[in-house]
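Re: export button greyed out
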Amino acid sequence: MNGQNRSMTEPDVNPPARQAAKPLSGPQKALHKLGLVRDIDLALHLPLRYEDETRITRLADAREGEVVQIEATVRASEVKLGGRRQLLVTVDDGTDSCVLRFFTFYPALQKSLAVGHAVRLRGELKGGFMGWTMMHPSVQASGGALPTALTPVYPTVAALPQVYLRKAVAGGLARAELAQTIPPELEYENGQYRTWNLREALSFLHHPTPQVALATLEDHSHPAWQRLKCEELLAQQLTQLQAKRERDRLRAPVLLAQTQTQTHAHAPLHEQLLAKLPFALTGAQRRVCAEIGRDLARPVPMHRLLQGDVGSGKTVVAALAATICMDARWQCALMAPTEILAEQHFRKLIGWLEPLGVKTAWLTGSQKTKERREMLALIASGEAGLVVGTHAIIQDKVVFKNLALAIIDEQHRFGVAQRLALRNKLAPQNEVDDAGNDAETVLEPHLLMMTATPIPRTLAMSYYADLDVSTIDELPPGRTPIITKVVNDARRDEVIERIRAQLHQGRQVYWVCPLIEESEALDLSNATETHAHLSTALQGSGESGGSPVLVGLLHSRMPVAEKKAVMDLFISGQMGVLVSTTVIEVGVDVPNAGLMVIEHAERFGLSQLHQLRGRVGRGAAASACVLLYSTGEAPRLSETARARLKAMMDTNDGFEIARRDLEIRGPGEFLGARQSGAAMLRFADLLTDTALLDWARQAAPIMLDRYPALAEKHVQRWLGGKAQYLKA
Ligand code: ADP
Ligand code: MG
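Workaround output, generated via the alternate export path:
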């Protein structure tokens, strides 16, 4: 023991044993909060950086501002009372002297710094003209052996002192079971890294020798890092593969597209809907419909992501899938993340399907009890073939008679927990009795998820490896590309001119105000102000010159009925300008809207900007998007804000936008914690570790087939209870 853990200046000087009687001490709770529960969790908690405590510096050789470790003898010690109470200690190492300053101190510390004591100190040296000083150095008795390895500094929280955490990690590392799980024949072939096994790698990363090139630790290119990344990626691929295989064992209703000859009285809904559409499907729409149709016809639950840029026409694909389901006499549910969006789908689908005789039910959180009860009855009896709604579909006591297809729109807006809830919810509730009898006939619904935020290939390969993907890579014909302009906020008046011009042509305008995360109230005042300003500025700018222009306001705090009233006016064309916070972000479809103005565009994320822009350009007439930016106090925009706005000007292509977004933000943020659950990759980087990812993808199926026990052990070690999240 080299004594590095005996610092007395840390707030928590009690060894954990003293608190063993209590259920969980503060630091223990903090450990749990950080997810550091099992020995392996602790062993995998890697340092943020390292401190070199392997050397003693002589004060005479030290430089101002340097963090140093010195050994010195206490010459004087006094508690100064005037002003702020402080402990002042003068030490001398034989080459020079230094004054230590403590504003918080305990008797134990004073004792260890008694005159004549030899101490080892570590802290940042400041050199005033009065000589060297150190503020709150760490203090330990002099003379213990110096550590031979660098001292790790771990990511932690206030309630968990570094010293405590170091001990916990060292203990976890010593106890953790780290036997090799990857069979030698599957090892990643890379001359240097093969020699590092997991225990060596972890021991090294926690306590590297001082000679190591720190750069290779920082950029994670060191062989010890390579080992961790390989193992982590393999664990992730194994989980995805297991999930896929588990799903392949489940059974789902076979939903065959019917043709006229097979039915008697009526043509199937599917054919009727196709015949009734006011447009022909694009090639891409036909292709994805076929892909979905093939899945539905199999007795295995579909697990498919339908991705297509904003405006590419996903809704009609969903409707066609729904008709196949209903033609086969099963129920279909469509879930959207917001009420406005659910409402839009509801309208559209009703417009298409009710004339064909489909009974539709509607479920949201804001519904009146009586109406809800009626809807629940329709759903339970099976009378409603199609159920549209928000989370209410999963949160409430909704019992379907025979649900066979669940469609989730804008799936990225739902969290992992919600997606899990959905899958559990959708698991059949009626067929199995308590004893689990008749398990063979339990049928799971098919699942179709839709998103306008395409997933870049590397992410699709890693995070969504168990998902089948269909892509609409073609917009309906006759769309004129949206022109995007980036404009300084100082030129707001010119933008208002453009709005006038749009209104004169009888077209409509969106004006989106930013979300200010810290303050919903500020957010609102911003939108309200803009609304008032535009209302005045646009007086008399109506179509025929003099008629009044209706300028509406929409924000998330409004009662649902009011929101709906505003939306209705805008959808029907009576309202010329809609000022809103980001509530319109997804899915709203008003083809007559020709201009989208986004205020403080620099505050929005790239995919959000793209989504918002996608609200215009839905008809044949030319449309534009104006990104107003303001640098505020700063002389210029931040690097990333500029990169985002530039990407918006450069391209209208959602896939290119997604690629750039991933580049700007990195996969962690791109997916977002909500999206990825607790199982984000911690060590591997999908942008740079593609070779390792390829290896893991190839190794996973072989490992699962030939070494199932090792595979299981590997997944448990790396993901423990989190594996569940990866399957959502
Ligand atoms: P998104 O993929 O963003 O959900 P929507 O489904 O809302 O897009 O479709 C956007 C608009 O394009 C809608 O008005 C829709 O009716 C229309 N649309 C969809 N498919 C076609 C098509 N093949 N030809 C012409 N218009 C289409
Ligand atoms: Mg949509």
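Residues 1-20, 429-439, 672-679, 723-728 have pLDDT under 50 and may be disordered. The button fix ships in the next patch.
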